[in-house]
Specification:
The chain contains 8 helices and 13 strands. By secondary structure, the chain is of the alpha+beta class. The strands form 3 sheets. Strands 1, 2, 3, 4, 7, 8, 9, 10 and 13 form a 9-stranded mixed beta sheet that branches. It has a two-stranded parallel sheet with strand order 5-6. It has a two-stranded antiparallel sheet with strand order 11-12.
Length: about 280
């Protein structure tokens, strides 16, 4: 229940829907130099998505540092970012949040830095952001760090169904991992991390070895169609029209499907509110 409410007076319809950003960090790895995605494992102690494997992500405040976005970011204006995700203003807040959460939860800062000072700088900023994530934009400004948001592409949107005590309107992004930055988890909210082939993540999910939310499974399945980070990013840059997801649920399987996939024509439309740009033309 929500703090201050009992289970008897909890009203799911009154739960506010918060803006959020989550980012799928991509890299070509392994013996075959093939596509891997970075996933992080949330502790069982958190309220939202406990004990689940997710992509780095968190809240967005479109009005926080609104006048500084174009100083903090290069590659997109706020007007361009706002147009991409169809908001009136403050669109770059979603890109900034994606970068902040990747740093906080995975120890990677999505920009190019001087190799001589990079590791210490990233570690210092991460330590301060873990203490207070509201400091992120100020720290970038103080240290004259500019995020290159050009390679970060928005590819999906999912709104948490009514029911949980926390709901999010989450934008999903893809980005290539910066060179020479190693992922690490903070051992707090995040207790593990893994670079994993999307198809291997699906195998582990089906075997109940990796617990994931349905939007996460859907996006991992989208990535599994591609062989390299370049292939994913090439499609993402096209910014294809959204396709609306439906839920196919034979025998409790609960599959989130896109148009053209088996079961879509007879699937439920209203269970999941989701739209995906990352699809085969």
């Amino acid at each position: 229940a929500v703090l201050g409410q009992t289970s008897d007076d909890y009203d799911p319809a009154a739960v506010p829907v918060r803006h959020a950003a989550t980012v799928m960090i991509l890299d070509d790895r392994g013996e075959d130099d093939d596509l891997h995605v970075l996933m992080v494992h949330r502790t069982a102690k958190v309220v939202f998505a406990p004990d689940m494997w997710v992509f780095p992500g968190g809240r967005v405040d479109p009005d926080d540092h609104l006048d500084d976005f174009e100083t903090i970011c290069r590659g997109l204006t706020d007007e361009q970012a706002s147009t991409i995700i169809d908001v009136d203003r403050g669109g770059l807040a979603w890109w900034v949040a994606a970068a902040r959460e990747t740093l906080e939860e995975a120890g990677i800062l999505l920009t190019t830095l001087d190799p001589a000072t990079r590791d210490d700088l990233v570690a210092e900023i991460r330590r301060l952001v873990l203490e207070d994530e509201n400091l992120f934009a100020d720290l970038l400004l103080e240290r004259n760090i500019t995020l290159d948001v050009t390679p970060i592409e928005e590819v999906a949107r999912f709104i948490t169904p009514m029911g949980p005590p926390r709901r999010f309107d989450a934008r999903f992004f893809v980005a290539r991992a910066p060179e020479d930055q190693d992922a690490s988890h903070d051992a707090g909210e995040i207790v593990n991390h893994s670079w994993i082939r999307p198809e291997d993540a699906l195998v582990r999910w089906r075997a109940d070895e990796m617990i994931m939310m349905s939007p996460t499974v859907r996006m991992v399945a989208c990535l599994a169609r591609y062989r390299s980070a370049d292939e994913v990013l090439a499609v993402a840059r096209k910014r294809l029209p959204y396709k609306r997801v439906r839920v196919d649920d034979p025998d409790g399987e609960y599959r989130v499907v896109l148009p053209g996939e088996p079961g879509y024509d007879t699937a439920e439309l209203e269970i999941e509110s989701g739209w995906v740009r990352l699809w085969e033309e």
